[in-house]
Amino acid sequence: MQDALVAAADELVGDGIRDTGITLTENLRHYMAITFARYMREQVEVDGLTIRIVEAMDRRANPFEMRGLADSCLIACAVFAERLRAAGGSLRHYAGMGQTAYDAAALIEQAVSFPHMRDVLAAATTRPPEGLRDLLDAARSGSTVARERLKEDGVVAFPTSRFIH
Question: What is the pLDDT of residues 57-69, one digit of tens each?
Fold first, then answer.
């Protein structure tokens, strides 16, 4: 991996941390920079992500493969959230899949911090969620940033979307 990519990714992660006010451990910050740098030169395979994770879990895939799937979920949730929603998915679903895959890879800190890592990468690379549906979806996936925006407007993100018509 090129040092220039890691430096650029680390700068983006730093921007996301500043924009969100989320504090991450140095370990997570460096992990995110390295992961994001890898995806600056490799394609993220978003399609069929749920099926690939379930199949990998069923055959007890090795931690390296599970980590790759979890990283794909993280990047997909942070950078391609609109695409996931357009395909009928929710950030809550994909965030849960990513957390599960990190857990299966024995990367507990990443599993627990998935929503914060997603918020930081999303803040650095995309525009903030717009509209009530997108904010609710992000809040339900664990997004602290989305919850704070909803709170400012006096909105509570209930666990399901069945109340919105």
Answer: 999 999 999 999 9
Cα separation, 96 vs 115, whole angstroms: 9
Element counts in the chain: helices (H) and strands (E): 10, 0
**Chain segment 119-131, per-residue pLDDT in tens:** 999 888 876 666 7
Structure tokens given for 127: 């525009």
Residue 106 lies in a domain: yes
155 is a domain residue? no
Measured CA distances, 159 to 4, 103, 140 (Å): 41, 23, 6
Residues 156, 107 contacting (CB under 8 angstroms): no
Is 140 inside a domain boundary?
no
Place of tokens 């679903």: 93
Which DSSP symbol is given to 128? Answer: P
Query: How far apart, in whole angstroms, are the C-alpha atoms of residue 41 and residue 125?
Result: 15
Q: Among all chains, which residue has been given the structure tokens 């909105």?
A: 155
Range of the domain at 89: 3-128
Asked whether residue 108 is assigned to any structural domain, the reply reads yes
pTM of the model: 0.81
